[in-house]
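Note to self: the last two entries modelled the partners one at a time, which told us nothing about the interface. This time every component goes in together.
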Amino acid sequence: MTQTAPTPSPAGSGPSAAGARPVVPRRGARRGAGLGEVTLAADGFWGSRQRTNATATVQHCVDWMERLGWLANFDAVAQGATEERERPGWQFSDSEVYKLMEALAWELASTSEPAAEELLERLTARVAAAQDEDGYLGTCFGHAGQEARYSDLEHGHELYCTGHLLQAAVARGRTHPDDDLVTVARRAADEVCRSFGPDGREGVCGHPEIELGLAELGRLLDEPRYTDQAALFVERRGRGLLGPIPLLGPSYFQDDVPVREAEAWTGHAVRALYLAAGAVDVAVDTGDEELLAAVRRQWDRTVERRTHLTGGMGSRHQDEGFGEDWELPPDRAYCETCAGVASVMVSWRLFLATGDVRYVDLVERTLFNVVATSPRSDGRAFFYANPLSQRVAGADVRPDEENRRAEGGTRAPWFEVSCCPTNVARTLASLQAYVVAVEGDAVSLLQHASADVRVALDAGGELALRVRTAYPSHGDVDVEVLEAPERPVALRLRVPGWATGAHLLEESGTTTLEPGFAEVRRVLRAGERLLLRLPVEPRWTWPDPRVDALRGCVAVEAGPLVLCAESVDLAGGRDVGDLELDPTAGVRSADGGALVRARLVDQPAPGPGGPGAMPYAASGPPVREGRPVDVRLRPYHRWAERQPTTMRVWLPVV
Amino acid sequence: MTQTAPTPSPAGSGPSAAGARPVVPRRGARRGAGLGEVTLAADGFWGSRQRTNATATVQHCVDWMERLGWLANFDAVAQGATEERERPGWQFSDSEVYKLMEALAWELASTSEPAAEELLERLTARVAAAQDEDGYLGTCFGHAGQEARYSDLEHGHELYCTGHLLQAAVARGRTHPDDDLVTVARRAADEVCRSFGPDGREGVCGHPEIELGLAELGRLLDEPRYTDQAALFVERRGRGLLGPIPLLGPSYFQDDVPVREAEAWTGHAVRALYLAAGAVDVAVDTGDEELLAAVRRQWDRTVERRTHLTGGMGSRHQDEGFGEDWELPPDRAYCETCAGVASVMVSWRLFLATGDVRYVDLVERTLFNVVATSPRSDGRAFFYANPLSQRVAGADVRPDEENRRAEGGTRAPWFEVSCCPTNVARTLASLQAYVVAVEGDAVSLLQHASADVRVALDAGGELALRVRTAYPSHGDVDVEVLEAPERPVALRLRVPGWATGAHLLEESGTTTLEPGFAEVRRVLRAGERLLLRLPVEPRWTWPDPRVDALRGCVAVEAGPLVLCAESVDLAGGRDVGDLELDPTAGVRSADGGALVRARLVDQPAPGPGGPGAMPYAASGPPVREGRPVDVRLRPYHRWAERQPTTMRVWLPVV
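The predicted structure of the combined assembly is written out below.
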């Protein structure tokens, strides 16, 4: 069989198209592979999702935003018609348009679909037409019949929207030469610098995002003013510049403690994580080691004590926020999809800055169990929140129904606050960026996915690989060298933290691997194959005893996948709340999931004292009748795909 | 020793002053004793609180409402100055004024403090002056510079405020003849009937309360139109008459299911409970057995599965609402003080309607563990939410500081949304109403409190009792008969559901009692004594295994009191999170609380995998070092009285 090296398709025809990617720090030798350097296989776990994203999700989002008038908001500004038309959507609906444009721009780095190119150009034109003379761009403030610009920094989301505009422009600018969107973004960024620079207003936005937008645009355009402005916004945070916020308090928008002093992430999870991502960008570009160390410390503390098994972040619905240490209720886990996306953004930046594999481990956990959980298989419906337990099967959402946030039914096509669909879209569109990293002559396979890889080595030459795997269903990752320089290079394969007993099989023999990076450093020959064998058999996972909400429970994971039980898999209309697991009986693989031995308990009538009796008694837990059953556990990321159901990740131990 | 029968002090000099009380159903032979028929002893648990309420809390609330301008809102309307003055306070701040007036009116039923009488008259004059020509009364809508009346039924709280006005007027009207406040209320109620009657707008208020206000005013004034209007509001509920509510959905304000169809209480707890109270009033007065049965069914289901050990209701902060069945997290228990007050209102009405002792049991549990928990001992600071676990010691609130809702520090003098202080005030001011019930020739001692009782029997004559007890610290309740008719009467003593092994000691011997009512039916002689002996020694309490959040934990109760551990009682700065209880070692009484044997655990560094490792591992819970300690548990209702502290009601079992 003849193997042909894949040729990156530089659809964006600029010179940097193959290497284009999110997050390009000004300093540091480590870089993510460009979107044109990695092609995800269409039948792989991620490649198929990326394809669905391109062929279904993007248009789905456009259709909804046309239908709801969020796109027309730009036309109204362009036509000076803001006074006569009631503006639909929340203050931040512009950002959904920008995130979708970012998705399109990344998508076009690896495809050259004319319809997508045309769509992006059309959107760019509509957005550009709404830009004010002085560069301000926003459809909610500052025009006839609207409140004044920046009159509600706490809740107005103006700079938040601008940040997303900048991210979209960065995506476009890195994948396409001299684009209008970059011009628009430059003018908008200049307006922000004038309004909020050292001589401007000492303010910050209630929702962080402008920081990383400015930092990335500063990188694209090599414009230190933008980096400085990003640094200024990061530095101003936590100093009480935002007004009082009813009921929640300043930690909601991270205005209680300066970024470099905070010990953990608090308040609204997406806000906290976007801010952290911007802080890393600033810290790396300016060489601010203290700031970088602060974010790393916050990551440690938050992952140790405030992160759900899925990688999901956010334990509270009230403020979509982090809870206290050890406050990790499975049923009320919020784990907003956007917080998952934002967590990937932070961890990815920290990996680039440090090379620490733990960050990549969390990226994997979060991608498989939060980001992949949100979209339905057809890419036309989404989860907003991702709890680890569902006590009551929710509603089967209609295809035309705008949903609230955390209902627990099936996935919804759109939301009142619809940040998640476009966030998923831009993440999937750029997913291959997180798969491979390059540092000098070392190429690291970070995420195990079927992909064709051809990366330019910093010291010259290219390394081309064909990676084939059924991971995460199967643990074998087959890496074939297609092309390599005639000098020693390093191929590094990530062994996830959970992978006890992984092996690397080469022609020369088999090596047992420890978690971390397994490195092969030698001259690689075209045609040779390496096989990474990861133990993805299902395994028990136990919670720290300080997590009150999980006391007496156990979960099952298989490779990077968190598994769950769904009532729809139980016979006789029984509920997952009736299950008690027997961990002594072992756990077996079963078709991408697991089979476990459990006890199906007969629940007594409520209350030991009869109807209306409280669920508390003077004697210990009653002996309940039950019978042994085998229970099928399935990947959490596909829960509620078949129908509304109750669900549990953590199950009580017999 | 000569015993003198107490003479009720009819401060409100109307003929019905001694028998005045909240909740006077039009039908049914059972009634609560009048406020003038029961005098709580000043040194008793409840009497001392009632005294503090009268001498400190009432003026404290007036001072805050003057300071914040909530009282001046009425003056602004009276003076036609609403356009030039920015109105302070939420839309519902009028209701705080009315609840305080209700407290004053009830207070004046048993005292004749001229300053209190003068204060109430002054408040009445200010309120009356703000009433519009057509009877509408409200300071937030319908005047110059304000939104139109009833233009925001979802959130405007206009009918909610009117409901509280009506309750205040009922309190005044039952304790004082021909008062201006009653006239004001009648005009307001007439306006409501015109606006929302059968020929008016088919609407309901986003926050129930008008229903029970109208029903009670209808009873006072013998006006069936008000009862009919209350019935109409109850019937309209749950039919989607309220507009969409962002993020929360119609169950938030009980507009998803008609009252007579609902299976359990859902949504915002105070809303649900006020509605239920109004529904019982309507059901009883109109003989609507189906409606009464519906509320009883909802009570059963909610108490079985949605009520915390303290009697607290509400498991969610997001909507201050009920959770799903079995969703009872101790740390995020909301248990709003007002929901405790409202739960007492519902259960009291159901007891009057049915005589079922379970309702009185819940009243006791809620009074001791929610209502008594809220106010600080000096009556000048309050808890708004009453969680059963506090992981992080909150702030020590300053005496001049308006607080948010659920901070977990010390009690706060006032809140942004300050419904709780005045709700506590009106409850404590009328507390003796819940202590004794009369039905024919039967007198029931429902709550065990030191009190002097002189009730008129329905069949003629009076029964006078002197009750003395250190309950709940001590289980002996000493009842002395001071005066009794010369015919057989029934004296019924409530034996709480938890009281296994209670006894009644009479001269004739000792009787072992079952939970429920212990009845002595015979001719009672002046001077004879009965001693009820209740087992208030501390005891273990175990949760139903379906309450996930309490798995593996146990609590300690003593009599009606829920106990808790506070870090402030642990040596060496140790935390309540480090405790594991050993239920095999027994539990001992200790000065109003308990001493239990526990293990003080040394917590390992977070994460089995070092800093930044997730709190999940492939092996079961680690063996942790620890040493045995005796831990003092104290009544939950006094937690955080000394200083901010961490706290737990439910503690893990070793």
